[in-house]
Amino acid sequence: MGHREQLLAAARTLLEEQGYAHITARDLVAASGTNLASIGYHFGSKAALLNAAIEASFEDWAAQLADFAMSDPDATPLQRAGATWVASLEGLPARRRILQSYVEALAQAMRVPELRGQIAAHYDRARAMVAELVARSIGAGAKPDEPRCRAVAALVIAACDGLAMQWMLDPDGTPKAEDLVAGLEAVLAASFPSD
Length: 195
Prior knowledge:
Layout: H1 3-17, H2 25-32, H3 36-43, H4 46-69, H5 77-91, H6 96-109, H7 113-138, H8 147-169, H9 177-191
Helix pairs in contact: 1-2, 1-4, 3-4, 4-5, 4-6, 4-7, 5-8, 5-9, 6-7, 7-8
């Protein structure tokens, strides 16, 4: 494992243990067995390294959610969305600390344009990945770069993010996946009434 991978692994561990705001560059060097220059060489800054570690953690989680959502080949797109929200809610307790670190990173990103850009780029990649799943779910020749696939991807990610934030503040009051599905069904039924 090279210095880049060692730094990422150390950052992921420290984010879980200490939180974003409390990690120093020296902590990262000590935990990774690398040196201060490696942080700058591979990531440009400590904050960029920490954000890359958060992103890697979320990418792992997103891959797990995607596998879960696509596990039933006969599921409808709405059923897949519901399955994603169920898996997302069930996975939140194990990810509380990384979510807290992410919120701390967002606060920093409001003042640091480079970090804001890094997080925005992460969201763009996440929307592209989810749009690919949406296209597969819709079928019928749907392409991930179609506006409808990107729009559904944005909706799914916004719902997952919103659920995570609500859960962090009020786990017992957070809507359940079935509430979201019922709400979506109600909107669809009102939008496309049957005669």
